[in-house]
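Homework help board

Subject: predicted structure for assignment chain

Our instructor gave us this sequence and asked us to write out the predicted structure in token form, then describe one feature. I got the tokens but I'm not sure how to describe them. Can anyone check?
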Amino acid sequence: MADVNRGNRPLSPHLTIYRPQLTSMTSILTRITGNAMLITALLIVWWFLAAATSAEYFDTVNGVLTSWFGDLVLTLSLLGLWYHTLAGVRHLIWDTGRMLDVPMAEKLGMAALIGSVVLTVLTIIII
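My token output:
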């Protein structure tokens, strides 16, 4: 039988009392970066198709991708690639049954965030 006192209970946590955890935010960010890398892949395919089509079309596409906006998009894509890679390593660690307690999970999340920024800067410096 249905609970007759159902109207007096909250059905889910309200936004004013719910604090997002770092692990949930990094999980959402992993999904976002995965989808963003698909868009980056399409940009790279566009660049290769332009190279195969004609010199004029390649100059146009290359101009877009090497402009300040293209540099920004590709730098953010690199950041997303590094973050997604480190988050994948974090999940591989979790798949072994290690570091599943909340303090270690949060440390791994912060390591993925900080590591992705550091590796992005190092990649830009090296390249």
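Reply (TA_rk): Your tokens look well-formed. For the description, you could write something like this. The first helix runs from residue 22 to 53. That's the kind of observation they're looking for.
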